[in-house]
Amino acid sequence: MKIVDIREATKPIKSDIRNAYIDFSRMTLSLVAVVTDVVRDGKPVIGYGFNSNGRYGQGSMMRERFFPRLLEADPASLLDDVRDNFDPHKIWRTLMTNEKPGGHGERSVAVGTIDMAVWDAVAKIEGKPLFQLLAERYGNGTPNRKVFVYAAGGYYWPGQGIEGLQREMQSYLDRGYSVVKKKIGGAPLDEDRRRIEAVLRLLKPGQELAVDANGRFDLPTAIEYAKALSNYDLFWYEEPGDPLDYALQAELANHYAGPMATGENLFSMQDARNLIRYGGMRPDRDWLQFDCALSYGLVEYLRTLDMLKEHGWSPRRCVPHGGHQMSLAIAAGLGLGGNESYPDLFQPYGGFPDGVQVEDGYVTLPDLPGIGFEGKSDLYREMRDLAS
Ligand SMILES: O=C([O-])CC(=O)C(=O)O
Ligand SMILES: [Mg+2]
């Protein structure tokens, strides 16, 4: 059993939107295919992965460092000791050969994307959905296929205006979402307040709004917003300050009693641990958004979940960034609190298998081998093109 080829293509996911920090006019991602010599249903098993929005394609680094390490390794060194399968943990160690500690963002996206494809292949070889495999190997044995999802959008679009924002948010509510998210910090506070209130006017009982500052604010601005946002009953106040400014995050707990969320730009267990140690996050109400696709993959995410447990945090406080099916599978298999979803953005990479509907804020994952990409026809077309 061996990996015979690994391919990468950098794909555009660009649009006119901007958040408080960046615009997405040149955004790309890496799509990866790990081709194996294992045959299932008469075809070679191919695992697929891609990175979430926000960090661009990673192809040159993959080709320079990570693909050669896997393809040049002794194939037997990548195999599971007890199962007839690849071992994602051994593959991860091989990928990380001669990589120094620290400085995680430089390579964590490349490794996380390859890791996603490896888990997809491993679950396909075992002939079951990844969520089932994860529940059996690392969870309580039984997945919960019903997963909470929220609709992320509400970016700053040229010329969208308040009515355009309301139309967008209403369309998410009409599609079955109970929580919608919009950006803040890309306009003056007064305008952001008007945008928030316009969305709040749409909400019916049981529906909520989250806001995301994308790490834009210094401490005084984050506090000013905290005071303004305290007037609304928000689902969460996300990433107020720089993702690595744990002191800012900790101080904000003195100014904002409602739930806060952060972590999408922390790219290793060690960085996540610093947030837990020093960021003043509150396990009874706050949310953690570490995204495996950007942070060394599921092998590392398992370490992060262990770290959280040691610090008294439940996996239910995790609602990952990124809107991909990999985190949906982890949520169903290991009991996370839910997953992000971008109903209209970054397609065809985000979203759910065809036919999966959002009902009262939840989706139910179908029984597809692997992560489930083959069930999403527009996405699978891109994947097949890469592999053929
Ligand atoms: O706008 C972005 O960079 C994405 C983001 O923060 C999110 O989905 O929470
Ligand atoms: Mg965010």
Automatic annotation (TrEMBL):
Its cofactor is Mg(2+). Gene3D superfamilies: Enolase-like C-terminal domain, Enolase-like, N-terminal domain. Residues 162-259 form the Mandelate racemase/muconate lactonizing enzyme C-terminal domain. Mg(2+) binds at residues 212, 238, 264. The active site is at residues 183, 321. GO terms for molecular function: D(-)-tartrate dehydratase activity; metal ion binding. The record marks 291 as: Increases basicity of active site His. The keyword Metal-binding applies. It comes from the Bacteria. The keyword Disulfide bond does not apply. SMART domains: MR_MLE. Keywords: Magnesium, Metal-binding. Binds 1 Mg(2+) ion per subunit. It holds the Pfam family MR_MLE_C. The record marks 53, 181, 340 as: Transition state stabilizer. CDD domains: MR_like_1 (cd03326). Substrate binds at residues 19, 53, 100, 155, 181, 238, 264, 321. PANTHER family: D(-)-TARTRATE DEHYDRATASE, D-GALACTONATE DEHYDRATASE-RELATED. This is Mandelate racemase/muconate lactonizing enzyme family protein. It comes from Piscinibacter koreensis. The lineage of its organism: Bacteria, Pseudomonadati, Pseudomonadota, Betaproteobacteria, Burkholderiales.
